[in-house]
Amino acid sequence: MKILSLLLLFLSNARSLSETRPSIIVIMADDLGIGDLGCYGNKTLRTPNIDRLARGGAKFTQHIAAAPLCTPSRAAFLTGRYPIRSGMVSHSPIGVFIFSASSGGLPSDELTFAKLLKKEGYATALIGKWHLGMNCGSTDDFCHHPLSHGFDYFYGLTVTNLRDCKPGEGTVFGMGFRLLVFIPLQIIAVALVTLEIIHFIGLLRVPKIVFFVLILLMACILGGFLFFLHHFQTLNCFLMRNHRVVQQPMSYENLTQRLTEEALQFIKRNTETPFLLFLSYLHVHTALFASEEFAGKSKHGLYGDAVEEMDWSVGKILDVLEEKKLANKTLMYFTSDQGAHIEEVSNKGEIQGGSNGIYKGGKANNWEGGIRVPGLLRWPGVVEAGIEIGEPTSNMDVFPTIVKLAGSPLPEDRIIDGRDLMPLLERKTLQSEHEFLFHYCNAFLNAVRWHPRNSTSIWKVFFFTPKFNPKGSNGCFKTHVCFCHGHFISHHNPPLLFDLSKDPREKTPLTPKTEPHFHEILKVIQEAVDSHTKTLQKVPNQLSWGNILWKPWLQVCCSSSYLSCHCDQEFKGNVSSLKQLGQ
Predict the structure, then answer these.
(1) Catalytic residue among 39, 63, 91, 131
(2) If exposure means fewest CB atoms within 10 Å of the residue's CB, which of 15, 101, 321, 358 is most exposed?
(3) Active-site residue 63, yes or no?
């Protein structure tokens, strides 16, 4: 009898714990600007479902991405740690993974929130973009794959959506062509002309084999690059289901509907158990795309169409939670991995980047436009509807927030830079735990934000800033994204200082004349930098040239023979269900 009572008590406690632990849906857009959403002031794009999410919960107005580029930002989001701690930052101009057959990626010893929630009995899934690596040494070790980082199920793209993935959209490798092809060709051509002149005037007899070798080298360089561009879509733009390639190259037809349907089916499969769904949209990174139901319907071209289609998808997620009576049991969070990419212009000259509202800069730099992102969190019955939080918060904060809610202790063997959001959300405190936030541009500490206790000021210093082109503009238009070193930046000594509480547009740097405490502020921030730097440990650089370059032996192909890397298992029997979903 005593044993039976203890068993009943255990089952009762287990059921109670299950009922108090929410399911978690985290939604991340790609390159969405804070000025693109109605709930943040946009008047011309229709985002009723995302606005509905905002009305039903909390809206953060100073929500910060941990990095202004996809790969490091997503690494920080999943681990709650600055990406420099995991080696997910670059010392070179290329700060993200471009090839599926690269060996770098999120290290296996990093703890994602998916790993910790899975240990607590959560069903876990990632639908959409990953962009944190795939393999280390072979085509099937999957050391960096989502399934190796705590996700039970994966359906999506392991790298990222690029112009080169969509025929007719041009290429992002224009600068690569200049650096890797055009300049070497120029050097070889000059060498050929010089040798020909020397040979002609009789100063030196140059064997014909030398001319032949140089011409052959030119042909190989140009031919290799053209071969690379021609096959890029097939080799890098494919969809996987778990470890299996199911569509190579990826088709954009009904792509958002397919991602949405996968997400809906995952929710429906797990109505009786806590689940974690990470829905990571390909919208609105270029190449832009929209299905027939949304194409040409917005006031902002294809970009607007993509935003409105993403909003439709969010509405479908909200609807299924209501339908399955899961709304009050589910914490739902929406954000973007960084600000809008304002340099984006199509090969036809159309502007394809979004809006960062009043904020300066955009993707790939740490002006507010590059890192201040939407932050919406809804949990009916727990988080008060319609509240607005203006304190500095970070997308790294999602990690400790949901890990604690799932009943898991935070890891004690590493520094977690994120802070639990629940005290702010439940109004138990009115000030963020983040006194300092450090803003990295690739591997370089670029800026620091300081929100002193018991003060309304939010100080931000820049140690260097990107050179906008042309001068006085709002972006690095000639280089497609802003870079973080060399002649692409301007160093500042003393650092530029702004008070974001009074100058959120970062228009007017303060000086000792305009800010009496100028030197004291810089001193406190420098002390914080010194303390932060001491916490950094040397780790392998996952974005080194050796880790990001294409490695043929890591190339995944849906055919084991590699005779043809073309397959499509996506549209067999799915057309009618997708049409029904779009209604």
Answers:
(1) 131
(2) 15
(3) no
